[in-house]
Design goal:
Length: about 500
């Protein structure tokens, strides 16, 4: 296992960004719930305490034993809530501020000689998000920087490797946030041990140890996540990996045949299963998004279970679960944003253990690993596609006819993105079939047909996303082609919502 920076998650929406920034700086990081600190920390360079939606003064606030943590004698960096939590337990004071700070502010540096502030300039912009503030420091701690409205923006212990910042260095709005995090890594003595090559070597070694001579059944979806997982597992265990690619009737147009051929060219041991009728039958009449996800998820399990029963001695099911899947399925606060059928384990009667080799990777990291494994650019940089497929892009009931309509519209959209050299400039794009009809006129006849929404977003890791400003002439072309060529559609709209508050998918 790689030595790492350990991030204790107190529920902040930006905790994942801390992990990303550390990895971007070349050092392996892991995020764990605040209450899950391992007994031994021999493989840890240092510890970061994240922010939180709570105030340290809330009765339900998440807390750890700070003095005991400091006794571990590892460098510690508290960020926002993490900084306040340390002061609250060490004898300082944290109180509700008369002037809350949200957004941009500027640092007034007091002690430029401190190693955490190396390369941080006077008046550097920082991003604040807190209603409480540290009004006095505990004995043995001193202020390194303030802002115009709070007395302590950065502090440190005088004789221990402990620092706290009341802003968020992990967000892009903090101008020299990466420099501050790099300084903390330098303080920790952390070595640059994180790269696609190191991940491949580490994971292949771990998979061989974990799986031994066992056979593995892999749930392929056609997307980059499961494809990279397949190639990674194939590198580790070869033909003992058995891949199942299910056509649930909710794939893109002609995708089943095209992707199946691509997998076979990779040398994978793959079987295609046509299960359209199974899924259409169980989805008939269902309109609730969560129920659709659960039916599709259960359907995958049922199909894999049936296929596994045809193979001898299958002991593991592999899935292409990645970090955002895990994060959004169950946050530290226990609030589910949306369920993922490939997160959360397997039913007891399946009798297979779960292996998820990409579980700690963000999407762009998965792609870099895919390139490291020698996969083609076209396969690795395909747009993300949800496991439930078009099932969550067809709002309302799923029928074969509605699937046909969306497949045709989506095919026109994605084909024109490639033709206009826009495909690789967009993180994710797709068409959505809305559960409404719109009045229109075609020739001399009045129509009352369906509406297609187009979605295109830019993102880095799917935790946040912004809508893409596609050229008007391109959108006009797509709209015209869809309305003229897809029977049943008479109106096309473009989604200009960002995440947050909207999600990338509509369901």
């Amino acid at each position: 296992m790689l030595k790492k920076i350990l991030i204790l998650d107190f529920g902040s929406q930006t905790t994942q960004l801390i992990g990303r920034r550390i990895r971007d700086l070349g050092v392996y990081s892991e995020i764990i719930p605040y209450h899950s600190l391992p007994e031994t920390l021999d493989d840890v360079w240092g510890i970061i305490l994240s922010g939180s939606p709570y105030s340290v003064n809330d009765a339900e606030a998440f807390k750890v034993d700070i003095p005991a943590l400091i006794d571990k004698r590892l460098p510690i960096l508290g960020i926002c809530y993490g900084a306040q939590l340390m002061m609250d337990q060490l004898g300082g004071k944290v109180q509700k501020s008369d002037t809350r700070e949200y957004g941009r502010t500027h640092l007034r540096i007091i002690d430029e000689s401190n190693p955490l502030l190396k390369g941080i300039h006077q008046n550097s912009q920082a991003w604040m998000s807190h209603g409480d503030t540290i009004t006095s420091l505990a004995e043995g701690y001193k202020t390194l920087a303030r802002t115009d409205t709070i007395p302590t923006a950065i502090y440190c212990a005088e004789d221990k490797p402990v620092w706290g910042v009341q802003f968020h260095p992990e967000v892009q709005h903090t101008e020299e946030g990466n420099q501050l995090l790099q300084n903390f890594l330098d303080i920790c003595g952390a070595e640059k041990n994180w790269s696609p090559a190191s991940f491949v070597n580490m994971t292949v070694h771990e998979l061989r140890e974990k799986l031994g001579e066992d056979k593995v059944l892999l749930a392929l979806s056609g997307g980059v996540d499961s494809s990279v997982a397949a190639v990674l597992l194939h590198k580790a265990i070869g033909q003992r990996l058995h891949c199942i690619f299910v056509d649930h009737g909710l794939l893109r147009k002609d995708e089943f045949e095209h992707v199946l051929e691509s997998y076979q060219h990779l040398g994978l041991n793959v079987k295609g299963v046509n299960a359209k009728e199974y899924f259409y039958k169980h989805l008939k009449g269902v309109t609730d998004p969560e129920e659709k996800r659960k039916i599709i998820g259960k359907g995958f399990i049922d199909v894999f279970d049936e296929e596994a029963s045809k193979l001898d001695d299958i002991k593991w099911l592999a899935q292409g679960t990645i970090y955002p899947d895990v994060i959004e399925s169950l946050s530290i606060t226990g609030m589910v944003i949306k369920s993922h059928h490939n997160v959360g384990g397997l039913p007891e009667n399946m009798k297979l253990q779960l292996v998820e080799p990409l579980r700690l990777l963000f999407k762009d990291e998965v792609r870099r690993v895919g390139i490291e494994l020698g996969m083609s650019h076209e396969m690795v940089y395909r747009h993300p596609f949800p496991g439930p497929g078009l099932g969550i892009r067809i709002l309302g009931e799923i029928t074969p006819e509605r699937v046909r309509i969306l497949q045709e519209a989506d095919h026109i959209y994605t084909s024109l993105l490639r033709e206009y050299d826009l495909y690789d400039k967009v993180w994710q794009a797709g068409a959505i079939l809305l559960p409404i009809h719109s009045v229109g006129v075609m020739g001399d006849e009045r129509t009352y047909d369906q509406v297609v929404a187009l979605r295109a977003v830019s993102s880095r890791d799917a935790m946040t996303a912004d809508w893409v400003h596609l050229p008007y002439d391109f959108l006009a072309k797509v709209s015209n082609e869809i309305i003229n060529k897809v029977k049943g559609v008479n109106r096309v709209v473009y989604d200009v919502s960002s995440k947050p508050p909207a999600t990338i998918e509509w369901e």
